[in-house]
Write a structure and sequence with these properties.
The chain has 157 residues and is mainly alpha-helical. Helix content is 75%, strand content 0%. It has one domain.
Length: 157
C-alpha cells in the first residue's frame, strides 16, 4: 500500500524530481489530459466521472501519505496538480484559443502562476485545511482561476 500511495500521489514518481516537482507535475498532467481528450477521445461525462473518482481517492491517499511520511503538503505530492489541470480541461471547449498548442501553453503558464501565488480563497484552504482537501482545493481553485482568465481572454479576442 505504501509503494502504491507514493506512486499515485507523486503521479508516476514525477513528484520525486528534485527540481520544481510542481512544474513537472503540471507538465505530465497536460500530457495525461492530451491523451485522455485527443487520443482516447473520452466524452465529458466519462472525464467528469474520472475527475470525481480521482478527487476522492486522492484525498484518501494524500492523508495516508501524510501519515506514513509525517509531512503535510509534501513537495512529492503532485496529484493535486493533476486535479487542478484536470478541472481546467472539463471546460476546454470554453477556453480553447486558436489551436491546442497556444491553449496548452496558456494553461501551463496561468495555472502555474495561480498555483504559486495562491490567490484567495486558495491561500485560505492551503493554510487552514491540513489534510488532503487542503492540498487539493488550492490547486482546483488555481485551475478555476485559469478557466476564468481564459474565458475572459477568449471574450476579447
Amino acid at each position: 500500500m505504501k509503494n502504491f500511495t507514493k506512486f499515485f500521489v507523486s503521479v508516476f514518481f514525477i513528484g520525486y524530481i528534485k527540481f520544481a516537482p510542481g512544474t513537472w507535475g503540471t507538465l505530465i498532467s497536460l500530457l495525461i489530459m492530451y491523451i485522455l481528450i485527443n487520443v482516447l477521445s473520452l466524452p465529458f461525462i466519462i472525464l467528469a466521472i474520472i475527475f470525481t473518482f480521482l478527487f476522492f481517492i486522492s484525498n484518501y491517499l494524500i492523508n495516508y501519505f501524510t501519515l506514513i511520511t509525517n509531512s503535510h503538503d509534501s513537495k512529492n505530492i503532485v496529484i493535486d496538480e493533476l486535479l487542478g489541470v484536470f478541472i481546467i480541461f472539463l471546460f476546454y471547449d470554453l477556453i480553447f484559443l486558436f489551436n491546442d498548442i497556444l491553449t496548452y501553453l496558456l494553461i501551463f503558464i496561468l495555472f502555474r502562476f495561480f498555483d504559486i501565488f495562491k490567490i484567495f480563497p486558495a491561500n485560505f484552504f492551503d493554510k487552514h485545511y491540513k489534510n488532503g482537501f487542503g492540498v487539493i482545493l488550492d490547486d482546483i481553485i488555481a485551475g478555476l482561476y485559469t478557466v476564468l482568465t481564459l474565458i475572459i481572454l477568449n471574450a476579447f479576442i
